[in-house]
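Support reply, case 0932

Customer input (verbatim):
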Amino acid sequence: MTSVAIATRKSSRAEPSSAALPLVAVVGQPNVGKSTLFNRLIGQRRSIVGDEPGITRDRIFGEVEWAGQRFAIVDTGGIVTDDDAVIPASIFKQAGFAIDDSQALIWVVDARQGLTTLDEELAKLLRATGKRVLVAANKSESARVEATASEFYKFGFEEVFPVSAEQGIGLGELLDALIRGLERAPESGEGVVSSHKRELRLAIVGRPNVGKSSILNSLLGEERAIVSPVAGTTRDATDTLLETPDQLFRLVDTAGIRRKGKAAEMAEKLSVVMAMKSLKRADVAIVIVDAEEGVTALDAHIAGYAYDAGCSIILACNKWDAVKNKETSTSSEFERNVRERMKFLDFAPVIMVSALTSQRVEKLLPLAIRANEARNRRVTTSQLNAFFEDAVSQPRGGSAPAPVKGGVSRLHVQYMTQASVRPPTFVVFTSGGKGGLHFSYLRYLQNRLREQFDFFATPLRIVEKHKQRKKR
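Our regenerated output:
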């Protein structure tokens, strides 16, 4: 089960399944196998793994169960202590947050490479924390390499384990030792969120460098995700929990989505895949558009991914504070442009925000709650029957378009029912003529359903089931 970080801007209570658990941080220099070890321990591919160093940047959280003991675990970016560049410095800062919050640290080193100068610097840093440190001498597949792992006792840490994260060698011994020193999670009491709340999974998506991580940090009121002017800073899809008095949110900050073929590095290609997977598990997607640059074809492409995934959608135009020469009509003009470029999202609200100044960012969560309520709405049979009589069977004033183009077919709409929610899906039963409702008729039904039952910000699916007359 995947766990997440806990935001405390609006509530100090933690998530029952993870926040009350003891936390263990996986740390080390770049490209020693931290993410491979993390994925092996949680039993799923949560962190991006590759030969390219420095792939992991933000903190990635998960949950492990071993010998009846559960604990939360956090994967951190590769620590480079003497690099002043923006991204390495931010990675170091994020790793520091993880270390501060942890009961114990798994320090991953490269047994093949042996002792390095950077390892010596990291050893000093880790000793200064006063935390318990278990050294995982990774890549110890052969007996020769396993023998060299003993070199790492030099740093003064008593618990050194030759392991292979790739092959799973030695991890049992590491975990046995780890859980012996961990405090068990409290079963109840303060610090635990009531479990009756269903979390709202909110994905933040957009093309690179439109301000997705800045929006996330503004919502949380803390520096949770790394933000820099470098496009493509975020690579993993990072989960964070935020609890408000009204709702428990799982916020997912995703990598910037590029068009196929435009992602040059392996890490970028994988991050786009993971961003797409995040949309499939999301309830609501906030699609971020750069207000300075205006709506692009790629923005519409990304919004289409969210629509196809069945997410409820909110269009947030970020960097509105940087738009010059704003007049009274500028906001409405910009929204008209958005609508023109994304005609398939005529149901999605458009809001102008600024992550930098937090302008109107606080409106995003209430909109997401309303959208989530709509996507879970189930219309009763009696309500749907009344709707059918009014809008389908006997439309007032002949306002409904013909079920098929030209209206010359004998196709007859018999009745309709709601099949499912998330997103709301309706089945229309037809008979006579040839099946195939015209798109204008489907759009008419969607608009009337949305108007009648307040399906705010939510795509509606309409499926036709056609019954042909039996031939005599």
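We compared this against your earlier run and they match. Two observations from our side: The chain has a mean pLDDT of 77. The first helix runs from residue 34 to 42. Please reopen the case if you see a mismatch on your end.
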